[in-house]
Amino acid sequence: MGQNGDEPTVGQLVANASKDLSNLVRGEIELAKTELKKSAVKAGTGAGLFAGAAFLALLAIVLLSIALAYAFNALGLHPALAFLVTAGIYLLIAAVLVLIGRRALSSAKGPERTIKTSKESVDALKAIGKGDEVSLPAAQPEPTAPPEPGGRR
To answer: Which of 93, 95, 72 is nearest to 84 (CA)?
Structure first.
């Protein structure tokens, strides 16, 4: 209590505000931990289900490949040749995927704008360190270009 007994001092008010702020921050951190724990459990369950689905899809591909080879055999191909034709089909699909993937990777660019602005910032900070007056570059939003035809976003 203050000097007259009914009002708290400024020091007490600051201490109470600091204590209340600390309790608020701790409460927010505990809430975030609880929410993240629940979210992580759900994400783990979802990832496990996706893994199970991927495993079953892989089994289905193997079985369908065998069925395709037997279908070629039923059409009159020797069994060894039927399995080789099936493998050849998969190799052809893999080659097409490699070509598409290589084209996608070659079109990927590094963070050119970020590198440029970082270099400008370093140069400006060096100039400030030498005593020169320099304004730091302001980040400008990059204009968005329309997507390329046939491209994905």
So the answer is: 72
> What gap in Å lies between CA 146 and CA 143, rounded to an integer?
10
**Per-residue model confidence (pLDDT) at position 13:** 87
Residue 134 Cα to chain centre, angstroms: 36
Across the range 112-138, mean pLDDT stands at 74
Kindly give the residue spans of alpha helices, DSSP state H, lying in 75-144: 79-106, 112-130
Q: How far apart are CA 70 and CA 78, in angstroms?
A: 10
Give the separation between CA 19 and CA 17, rounded to whole angstroms: 5
Whether residue 79 contacts residue 69, with contact meaning beta carbons closer than 8 Å, is answered with yes
Separation between Cα atoms, residue 89 and residue 71, nearest integer Å: 14
Burial class (CB in 10 A: 0-12, 13-18, 19+), 70: middle
* Tokens 């609880």, residue located: 34
Which has more pLDDT, 87 or 109? 87
What is the Cβ-side half-sphere exposure of residue 82, based on CA atoms within 13 angstroms?
15
Q: Are 124 and 134 in contact (CB under 8 A)?
A: yes
